[in-house]
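Design job #97: recover the sequence.
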């Protein structure tokens, strides 16, 4: 830095010492390469841990009420967690009662025994028969005293009535607790099916509290983001910020809501289960513990693996979605360069990764599910084998055996299943790290700050004092270097210079989008960093080259300039901006929606609305950054006169490449390499022969030649008669209605008088028809679709039929496992009433071996089911996404003009519809087959062993199904409300973040924050309603289960006593029916997914079946290149392969400069030499070679890291490398400075030699040498011919050339 230069630090808050200046003697130079602070920051970030937030810090936004709710919710979770093991006590006592009663019956069935004084004794006067003495042992039993067994005391009906009351009481308690709880997915265990417990609750108090906190976090985060300085946005992509506002905050919600209660409940169950085990029987507990870690380990590994693979799968899908969004947003560019199939392949490459992770996830889930079932059945075998020995040795009762076994096993499983909660906590903390750090970050430039001075009187003097600046995203490239320039009040100061010289950057510093790294910018002698920023920006009106409009009406867009402005002021501003006439031609006039990003308006219309928005602001400082660049000459002249009028008395800074627009400026400042190298009036600078002189000389050569021709043609008027051309009558056939909304041309009054009646007849009619069609399209609601037939869905899955067949076999076998469990479990209980020890041991050993066999079978079939259906499902999803994306890219461009086919909507449709179709195929088929097999086998078992008890239990199933159905319906409604509200909030945040510079310039940050916050109220209230409704439904469904158990065991006791039903059959039937009920609930839960799948498939098939009006994939058609042939008969791919185009606003893709240039020709491999050759022709090579990464430099989203001129030159290189037969140049050099334009124009002149070239230009000097010039108005050609002939005609073209409008 030169000696004596000034370095200005961040300004302190008012009232503090302002040690702002620092003097250094270090030399510096422009464009010097230094170590990037961004790299240092990235290195520091890499060294920091990903999680920097403690768990309890997640609750930093909880109020006292929230804390109270969480405490009560925790108590509920603890009670529910302890209830399951404690209920085992009741179940153990009930089991012992049944077994004791059965033993008593078996004892008294022996004729030699009798019940005397409530004790079983040998009958008196009983003598052994000869046969008894022969048998030996039987006779000697008479001399053995009987065990002290009671009889006649146990009334099984009475006991079962008491247990029924227990269940009713517990059911009522569970209903009360259940009101505060939500059910989750059923754990992979049927141990508790006969006891009526669900092992995965969510606490509604936690959910309600979390909803309140998450709402606060969303509001604070978006509010803080909207306060950030523009430099912060340069380093944080909009897509990333939107993801954080949705996905990351959802992760925080998971971590502070249901996952907390799940963890507390599971951990409580684990503690209580193990306590029960050690207290009730420590020996069996230690034996089970030998296997229990295997269950916990399996559950934990499965959860961690699935979470990891799911993350990778989602990441791959996110990349595919980003590709789809980028491609669909740039569909015109993709179509123009024939990149459809290339983009389909690029999209598919990301789908392959997602498919791979999805299949691995299915295999892992199948393996671990089978592994856990295998370990569980081994535990059954081990526990019943060892435990039966303890029962035979009279150490345990059968009830104690069940209490200890199930208590320890359930405890171990809950401990394993708590691991996903820890994963959710970690994910929440990781997400909160970035979110909370953003909330806590103090913006370097706080746009909503109330601090700072507000000057009582504003003159409008702007001055740059030795300002040095570089963008935060590219700190190694210096943009401004010791810039010193003064702008006097009331004067118009023009900034001129080549692209990248720092002109627009200087304007952004005045708006205080950035602060200088050194030096300062002052307003009336006050450092603008000490001024109130909202007040400062309210003084400024700005019109940019690429104006941003918001998705609302024209009137509202103008009203954004100044709140509370009247309609009269809006109309006045529109008239000043020459926008009034085209607005009044629209059917809805000022209430016409401009579309997303102003997409329904032409470039000129958008520019004029933006100018009106700036004028209605009545600014003291007017900043015009190529404000009229998008206008035709006539409109430009009118608007320029309006701008000349409104800038009187205002400080105005104008940036322009059309130097004729700033010729009369009070002061012209020449920029070069980030410095102001000259200043003065036009005449002074022309005499100095510096930067400005060079630019004017280059640009005026063409203008001078054109005007000289005009004068010559005026003098030789007689020659024009013979050269007169036919007019619009010859071109009636070219009239066509466009679906895209366009206004009448501003050149309409230039039509010669003889053609006015015809123009008046055809022009408006064409417009009115097209707009009526457009309005009709906009007002159409989404057409309802008939659900797609399952047969067609399966047809797309037909290549995977072997996988589906094997998967269905595995699912059917797995469906029969739970009913078989009920058989084995009840049989084990039956063995405990057998009095013969040898027979009892044989029975137990056989059953235990059967448990092992069933476990092995389940292990292998679970793997088969998991892998087979994940394979078929993922292949289907990939196939549908690929086909859908291919079909979208194959549609004609007009299809994308429909608001229902916006890039965001299509990307969402690809993601959701394709994945939802799996609800009717893939793993869902396995679940349905599993459930149906389970239900079928269970009902067969139940009706076979006791149809009466089965009928009683079945009476309760409709109530369970009813509560589940009502619950599902209510939640579906809430989910839809949430989706609509969050999509609305997402649209607001997306529009705000994408257009943050415009919003900051207008000072509308708080407006968008208020709009966003208003949209969040809906989801919050829905979450509160959902908590109450879901809690009531869950409590009712749990209560019904207990009531069903109560009635079942009570009626079972009656059947055992009065109809001789064996007690084991009661357990068998109840266990089987509850198992079938669980399966029925599981099957019914698939119904909404199944319905969604059919609707999604129908929408998908609509897309696939749609035949585009212009097919890009068809090779049909002639291979002629127009040449007298109808273009409709020419093959579309062939035709487009011969066309190169450069648009006014070029679209670049988020990849390297080299890849963007290569995109010009997707039919061949392009070498680096070809890329460099094209870049040289487009005057791009030297700029690229000055970048650190040269041709591998990423251009950013839509080329955001490059200037307009740099983007334009890349687009020109892209067209050149195509080597087209037809070259279309739509304002191809409009964004270039004069010097670059001249060079590029020469390159284009050379490139179009031997080619058919169509040029659209407002700078008439660029097209005066064209072979044919066609003048268009209202959608049809009114004049056609070479320049000389059209000048001789003295029609519309002549008026354009000779009018007072600038011709540059």
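Job complete. Output follows.
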């Amino acid at each position: 830095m030169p000696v004596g230069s000034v370095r200005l630090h961040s300004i302190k808050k008012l009232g503090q010492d302002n040690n702002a200046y620092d003097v250094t003697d270090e030399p510096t130079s422009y464009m010097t390469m230094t170590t990037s602070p961004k790299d240092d920051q990235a290195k520091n970030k890499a060294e920091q841990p990903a999680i920097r937030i403690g768990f309890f810090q997640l609750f930093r936004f909880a109020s006292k009420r929230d804390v109270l709710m969480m405490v009560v919710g925790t108590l509920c979770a603890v009670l529910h967690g302890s209830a399951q093991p404690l209920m085992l006590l009741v179940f153990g006592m009930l089991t012992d009662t049944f077994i004791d009663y059965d033993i008593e019956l078996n004892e008294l069935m022996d004729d030699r025994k009798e019940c005397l004084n409530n004790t079983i004794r040998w009958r008196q006067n009983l003598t052994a028969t000869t046969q008894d003495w022969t048998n030996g042992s039987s006779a000697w039993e008479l001399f053995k005293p009987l065990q002290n067994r009671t009889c006649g005391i146990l009334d099984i009906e009475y006991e079962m009535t008491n247990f029924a009351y227990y269940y009713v009481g517990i059911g009522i308690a569970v209903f009360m607790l259940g009101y505060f709880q939500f059910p989750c997915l059923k754990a992979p265990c049927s141990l508790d099916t006969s006891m009526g417990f669900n092992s995965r609750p969510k606490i509604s108090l936690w959910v309600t509290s979390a909803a309140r906190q998450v709402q606060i976090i969303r509001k604070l985060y978006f509010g803080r983001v909207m306060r950030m300085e523009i430099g912060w946005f340069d380093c944080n992509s909009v897509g990333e910020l939107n993801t954080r506002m949705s996905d990351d905050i959802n992760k925080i919600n998971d971590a502070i809501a249901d996952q907390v209660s799940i963890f507390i409940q599971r951990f409580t169950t684990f503690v209580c289960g193990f306590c029960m085990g050690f207290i009730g029987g420590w020996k069996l507990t230690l034996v089970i513990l030998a296997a229990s870690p295997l269950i916990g380990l399996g559950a934990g590994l499965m959860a961690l693996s699935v979470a990891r693979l799911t993350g990778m799968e989602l990441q791959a899908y996110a990349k595919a979605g980003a590709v789809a969004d980028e491609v669909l947003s740039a569909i015109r560019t993709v179509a123009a360069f024939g990149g459809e199939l290339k983009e389909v392949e690029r999209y598919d490459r990301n789908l392959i990764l997602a498919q791979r992770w999805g299949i691995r996830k299915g295999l892992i889930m199948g393996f671990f599910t089978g592994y856990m079932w295998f370990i569980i059945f081994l535990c059954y075998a081990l526990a019943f084998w060892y435990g039966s020995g303890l029962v035979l040795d009279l150490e345990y009762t059968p009830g104690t055996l069940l209490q200890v076994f199930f208590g320890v096993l359930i405890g171990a499983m809950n401990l394993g299943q708590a691991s996903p909660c820890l994963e959710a906590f970690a994910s929440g903390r990781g997400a909160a790290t970035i979110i909370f750090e953003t909330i806590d970050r103090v913006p370097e430039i706080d746009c909503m700050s109330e601090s700072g001075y507000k000057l009582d009187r504003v003159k409008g003097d702007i001055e740059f004092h030795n300002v040095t600046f570089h963008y935060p995203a590219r700190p190694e490239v210096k943009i401004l270097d010791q810039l010193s320039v003064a702008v006097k009040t009331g004067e118009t100061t023009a900034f001129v210079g080549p692209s990248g010289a720092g002109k627009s950057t200087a304007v952004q510093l005045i708006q205080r989008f950035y602060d200088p790294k050194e030096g300062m910018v002052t307003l009336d002698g006050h450092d603008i960093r000490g001024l109130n920023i909202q007040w400062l920006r309210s003084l400024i009106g700005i019109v940019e080259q690429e104006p941003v409009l918001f998705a609302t009406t024209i009137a509202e867009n103008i009203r954004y300039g100044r709140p509370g402005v009247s309609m009269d002021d809006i109309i006045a501003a529109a008239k000043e901006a020459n926008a009034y006439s085209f607005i009044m031609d629209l059917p809805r006039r000022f209430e016409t929606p401009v579309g997303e990003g102003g997409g329904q308006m032409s470039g000129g219309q958008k520019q004029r609305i933006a100018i009106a928005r700036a004028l209605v602001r009545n600014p003291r400082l007017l900043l015009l950054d190529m404000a009229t660049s998008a206008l035709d000459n006539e409109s430009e002249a009118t608007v320029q006169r309006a701008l000349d009028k409104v800038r009187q008395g205002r400080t105005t800074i104008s940036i322009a490449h059309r130097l004729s627009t700033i010729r009369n400026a009070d002061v012209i400042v020449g920029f070069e390499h980030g410095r102001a190298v000259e200043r003065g009036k036009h005449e002074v600078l022309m005499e100095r022969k510096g930067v400005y002189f060079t630019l004017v000389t280059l640009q005026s050569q063409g203008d001078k030649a054109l005007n000289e021709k005009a004068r010559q043609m005026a003098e030789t008027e007689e020659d024009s008669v013979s050269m007169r051309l036919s007019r619009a009558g010859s071109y009636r056939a070219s009239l066509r209605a466009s679906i895209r909304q366009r206004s009448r041309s501003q050149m309409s009054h230039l039509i010669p008088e003889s053609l006015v009646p015809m123009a008046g007849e055809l022009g408006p009619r064409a417009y009115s028809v097209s707009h009526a069609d457009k309005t009709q399209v906009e007002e159409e609601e989404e057409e309802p679709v008939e659900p797609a037939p399952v047969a067609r869905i399966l047809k797309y899955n037909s290549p995977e039929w072997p996988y589906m067949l094997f998967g269905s076999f595995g699912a059917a076998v797995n469906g029969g496992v739970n009913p078989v469990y009920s058989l084995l479990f009840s049989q084990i209980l039956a063995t405990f009433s057998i009095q013969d020890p040898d027979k009892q041991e044989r029975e137990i050993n056989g059953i235990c071996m059967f448990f092992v066999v069933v476990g092995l079978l389940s292990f292998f079939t679970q793997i088969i089911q998991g892998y087979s259906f994940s394979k078929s499902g993922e292949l289907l999803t990939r196939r549908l996404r690929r086909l859908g994306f291919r079909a979208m890219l194959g549609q004609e461009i007009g299809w994308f003009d429909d608001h229902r086919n916006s890039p965001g909507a299509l990307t969402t449709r690809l993601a959701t519809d394709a994945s939802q179709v799996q609800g009717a195929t893939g793993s869902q088929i396995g679940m349905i087959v599993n459930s149906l097999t389970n239900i079928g086998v269970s009902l067969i078992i139940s009706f076979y062993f006791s149809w009466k008890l089965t009928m009683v239990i079945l009476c309760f199933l409709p109530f369970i199904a009813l509560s589940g159905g009502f619950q599902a319906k209510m939640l579906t409604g809430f989910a839809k409300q949430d989706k609509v509200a969050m999509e609305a909030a997402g649209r607001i945040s997306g529009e705000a973040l994408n257009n943050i510079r415009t919003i900051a310039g207008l000072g509308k940050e708080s407006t968008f924050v208020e709009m966003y916050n208003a949209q969040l109220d809906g989801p919050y209230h829905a979450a509160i309603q959902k908590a109450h409704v879901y809690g009531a439904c869950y409590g009712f469904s749990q209560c019904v289960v207990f009531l069903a158990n109560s009635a079942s065991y009570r009626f079972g006791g009656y059947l055992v006593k009065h109809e001789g039903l064996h007690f084991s059959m009661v357990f068998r039937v109840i266990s089987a029916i509850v198992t079938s009920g669980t399966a029925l609930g599981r099957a019914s839960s698939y119904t909404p997914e199944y319905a969604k799948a059919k609707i999604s498939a129908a929408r998908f098939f609509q897309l696939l079946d749609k035949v585009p009006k212009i097919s890009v994939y068809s090779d049909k058609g002639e291979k002629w290149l127009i040449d007298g042939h109808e273009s409709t008969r020419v093959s579309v791919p062939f035709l487009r392969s011969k066309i190169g185009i450069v648009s006014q606003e070029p679209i670049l893709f988020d990849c390297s400069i080299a890849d963007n240039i290569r995109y010009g020709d997707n039919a061949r491999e392009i070498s680096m030499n070809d890329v460099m050759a094209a870049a040289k022709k487009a005057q791009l090579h030297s700029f690229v070679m000055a970048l650190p990464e040269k041709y591998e430099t990423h251009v950013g989203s839509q080329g955001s890291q490059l200037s307009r001129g740099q983007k334009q030159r890349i687009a020109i290189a892209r067209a050149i490398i195509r080597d087209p037969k037809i070259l279309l140049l739509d304002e191809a050099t409009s964004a270039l400075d004069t010097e670059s334009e001249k060079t590029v124009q020469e390159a284009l002149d050379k490139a179009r030699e031997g080619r058919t070239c169509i040029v659209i230009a407002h700078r008439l000097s660029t097209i005066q040498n064209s072979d044919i010039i066609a003048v268009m108005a209202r959608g049809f050609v009114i004049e056609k011919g070479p320049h000389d002939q059209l000048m001789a005609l003295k029609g519309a073209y002549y008026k354009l050339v000779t009018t007072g409008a600038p011709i540059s």
